[in-house]
Design goal:
The protein has one domain (about 35-260). The protein is built from 3 helices and 16 strands. The chain has helices spanning about 1-25, 205-210, 255-275, and strands spanning about 35, 45-50, 50-65, 70-80, 85-90, 105-120, 120-140, 145, 155-160, 165-170, 170-180, 195-200, 205, 210-215, 220-230, 235-250. The relative contact order is 0.18.
Amino acid sequence: MNKLIKKSMMAAAVTGALALASSAAMAQTFPYFTVNEGSVAGANANTFTADKVTGNYTEVISFGANNSFNVSLLWNAGQFVTNNGATPVPTQLGQTGSVVSQQYGLYALYTGSGTYSMNNGTTSFNFTPGGALSVYIDPNTNTMFNKPGNGSTAWTTTNSGDDYLIGTGMPTSGQGTLDPSLSTCGSSGGINCGSFGSSTSFALTAQGSQYFTSPNPFYNVSFQSGQFNNIPLSGTQTVNGSMDVIFGSTAVPEPASVALIGLGLMGLGLSRRKKQA
């Protein structure tokens, strides 16, 4: 009996430790990265650390046969933040049309595709692997963007002779939900009618490695999250909203995976106790 009690106490202690470890792993933490703004022509020398980039996107989405869709997206970075996305970082990041000489622009062009399904008025979007991501720096903040006629065609630019590519990638997965019944959506013109998240492979160019200097090698995945406006699910539509970006690495287990490992070990301990009893 004493041996059984001791083993039960040990199993409980291990279970508690795993639960604490899983809870810690599930805490929201964004990986840090370092930016060298002095690598951009015209910018002042400045290095900072951040963990998220916030911005705004405009997306052209075309709906096709068999509940398919294609998207073409333009994203303009607005601000770097740190402390798990809570604290703005002073930088020289600017927008198109800025007259401040040391400011520069940071933008991305993205194409992707997937399928959607509807259930009780809510639409679920699922991205399929494929498409392209290109990230650019605009030293003169003078680039103009041209919206494509459909979601299968990439955005084009003018006044972009000074721009240079700093990163590329390919969409790998993603999900989104559009729910017009949300109180923040309304019958028409709703500004918050759902949300989405996606992951994309990511690799820096040689010039990109001069801008994103740490870690080295840099993260190989980017994660995007944002919100939807309300749109009809037919033809070609334009949607816009906020979209944030963080980075990560495929070598690091996701928090949910760590939690599942903890639960699995807990179940194994309980199974052994039953056999011994």
